[in-house]
Amino acid sequence: MSAVAGLLAARGLTVSGSDAKEGPALAGLRAAGVTVHVGHDAAHVEDVDSVVLSSAIRESNPELARARERGLPVLHRSEALAALMTGRIGIAVAGAHGKTTTSTMVAAALTAAGRDDVVLDPSYAIGGTVLTADGATPGYRTGAGEAFVAEADESDGSFLAYAPAVAVVTNVEPDHLDHYGSAEAFEAAFEAFADRVLDGGALVACLDDPGAARLVAAVRDRLTRRGVRILTYGTDAAIGTDEHGPDLVLGPVRPEGGAWHVTLTSRSAEVPGADLTLAVPGEHNAANAAAAYLAAWAVGADPDAVVRGLGEFRGTGRRFEDRGTVAGVRVVDDYAHHPTEVAALLRTARGVVGDGRVHVLFQPHLYSRTRTFATEFGAALDLADTVVVTDVYAAREDPDPEVSGDTIVRQVPTPGRAAFVADRHEAARTVAAAAAPGDLVLTVGAGDVTELGAVVLAALDATSGAPDATSGAPDAAADALDATSGAPDATPGAEQA
Fold this sequence. Notes:
This protein is of the alpha/beta class and 497 residues long. It has 17 helices and 23 strands.
């Protein structure tokens, strides 16, 4: 929503908006000339011409209710972004995971290409801050060129508002079943998204993902008849997933000198290969970079410029974002909130930490997702050394008294590895107590767990000066984990209620 507001203000419109509480994005919006209200009030829409809302806004919201009474045009966020994209070279990035990182990588690649070809200098709207060598910048930008990059949210089907020149699908792994009802309906929505690509455009998809591979097989013939190119990427394992195989094959990720190197080998006469040097770790980020490389190439970017831009990419907010290091313990925050994302994060963390241990503070996001994927979350979290799960962040849902963080803890296969601590601040102190010098602590989830990195760092700082505090921390944490996992007063839903 902050990206929509910032882009509209940059177009010269008078923009105001409200949020439930003060947040990090609001200062930047004020600086951009947006009138910001903290708290929702019907009076805020008395002198506006139209209202743009997010999926989190319910019909009972006083501003939305008043807008309906006044007969104002009410647009979903995606409809506003689609209007901004109209007449531009649109690149829409979708997928159950990887959207934000891949969108930002596309924007970074096109920004580099735009230095030599101003037509490609991009505007973008991305669901997170963009990290640069000079610090964090907002998740939106108005470029001088015609390219427009948008992160396309599939959670409520609103990504079908776009009609892009290039659609990127990182994966089609079922999620948001509270909206779609079934995995089949979820996959059907991605087919409809692919069908939205303009004639002569391109679909970029990952053949390592079974759902994306099925998508490519389902739409290839009808898109090809409209002149839409199918551009695919994947590892060696993806070569046999469809009759064509990936256009770009990802080699292994090679860490060296604080960077990560990967070779993209072309199997297509028209698509050039490349050697990438990335500042972000993990096989999943190498795959995201391959998607961005293909998307930027598809709109005419010079491959060498794309490689430079991807090398300049420093990440996005809440995607393996450093929060600090205290007493030799590094604290990193990440937005992962689906089992596949959590597993990919922990595999990456294991490669980063070396001989150290990985400790996770996880906040489940949505009761419906927690209930549906509890077993998968348990298996993913079992990749850590210790796990503390706090209570569910409800977001747009009403509490479910039968679902809590303990629902996931009970599914972690290794006995004693995970504990449920309903109070999120106490959970942060518990995970901090488990850490020793050389270890990595991750705060993970799509809710307000991001605020707890500071609590973890403060707890580490408080114990680092005490005699023998470091050497005794793991034993203290083990006691805490044992105590909390069996505590009779760890009431499900207590923190969220």
